[in-house]
Design a protein that fits this description.
- The protein has two domains: about 170 residues, D-Maltodextrin-Binding Protein, domain 2, CATH 3.40.190; about 120 residues, Periplasmic binding protein-like II (D-Maltodextrin-Binding Protein, domain 2, 3-Layer(aba) Sandwich).
- It contains 13 helices and ten strands.
- Strands 1, 2, 3, 4, 7, 8, 9 and 10 form an eight-stranded mixed β-sheet that branches. Strands 5-6 form a two-stranded parallel sheet.
Length: about 325
């Protein structure tokens, strides 16, 4: 090969390299993402409200990204096992997590020595859904209202069992807030997920749960459990006859269960931006919104900045709840 020919080849290589280097890295990342299937970690058991919503989101994301978004349930320790795996994963957008009040806020508040930081190790992408907590009870309990339940709890401290999906879960957080505001004492029975706690609620092993509305709406409508009050500031349009906890027995009470998409810190900004856009599109799809409403929630589709601001506002409140209760994990 002649020197002239070699020079032409080298010049082509150099010019090609210069073209690539001139292309901003965030554009390269956006063009190549996703390059394979995406793992969407749900740090709670299958069958619960978070899992149901995660699968709905995953389906919509798969269609829009052109790659399969595979839901994987990694349960245990109130969501910390799944969260820890995501925090330690390669930050390229191919391992994501559905975050909840428990996994993102409660665990850090209860465990100062947690091996990951929900604040520092995750990037908020978008809030996907929001739904109220509802106070439900076994259908055979003698109480017929929130007032009668509160009276029974005050008359016999530590005599009523409540279930949760584990320490730090939305059920646990919501009940701790209730106990803080009403000065009553209930007995906590933690489970690995919502499904098992609902089985025991219906059998009478536990008496009450402050549960996320989506997994129990049909049970309430079928009168398989008793519903006493809604935990959001306003009454739910799905159960308009139910008073709020704030208006009935716990002034100031406000607890909702949200889901959001999170990526490990270090994920390229272009990838985060694309995922943000996709979640917003899925959440605002009329068909998806209808399904979420049918479950008892509202689809949101917030911006990454909106979710970040929301978390900064909620974090000190959650920390105060667990500090006051003395709950540690």
């Amino acid at each position: 090969m002649t020197a002239t020919r070699i020079g032409r080849i080298n010049r082509r290589h150099v010019l090609g390299a210069m073209a690539v280097s001139a292309c901003p890295l965030h554009l390269l990342a956006q063009e190549t993402f996703p390059s394979r299937s995406i793992r969407l970690i749900v740090p709670f058991a299958a069958g619960g409200g978070t899992d149901i919503l995660a699968r709905l989101l995953a389906s919509g994301m798969s269609t829009r990204l052109g790659q399969q978004v595979v839901v994987e349930n990694l349960t245990g320790a109130g969501g910390t096992i799944g969260a820890m795996q995501v925090a330690r994963s390669t930050p390229d957008g191919h391992t994501l997590m559905i975050g909840t009040p428990g996994s993102i806020l409660s665990n850090s508040a209860m465990q100062p020595d947690l091996k990951y930081s929900a604040h520092n190790d995750f990037i908020p992408i978008s809030k996907f859904s929001d739904s109220p907590v509802v106070l439900i009870a076994n259908k055979d309990v003698p109480w017929t209202s929130a007032q009668e339940f509160l009276a029974a709890a005050r008359a016999n401290p530590a005599s009523i069992n409540y279930g949760s999906a584990g320490l730090g879960s939305i059920e646990h957080l919501s009940t701790e807030l209730f106990q803080l505001l009403t000065k009553v004492q209930l007995v906590h029975v933690p489970y690995r997920g919502t499904a098992q706690s609902l089985i025991d609620l219906r059998s009478g092993t536990i008496q009450v749960i402050f549960e996320n509305l989506p997994p129990v709406l049909k049970l309430i409508q079928a009168k398989e459990v008793k519903a006493f009050a809604i935990g959001s500031k306003d009454r739910s349009r799905f159960l308009p006859e139910l008073p709020t906890l704030a208006e009935s027995i716990a002034p100031g009470y406000d607890s909702t269960s949200w889901t959001g998409l999170f990526a490990p810190t270090g994920t390229p900004a272009a990838v985060v931006s694309r995922l943000e856009k996709v979640v917003m599109e899925v959440a605002r799809d009329p068909k998806v919104s209808a399904v979420v409403r049918e479950l008892g929630g509202e689809s949101v589709g917030s911006s990454a900045e909106e979710l970040k601001t929301f978390l900064l506002q909620r974090r000190p409140i959650v920390e105060q709840i667990f500090k006051s209760s003395g709950t540690k994990n």
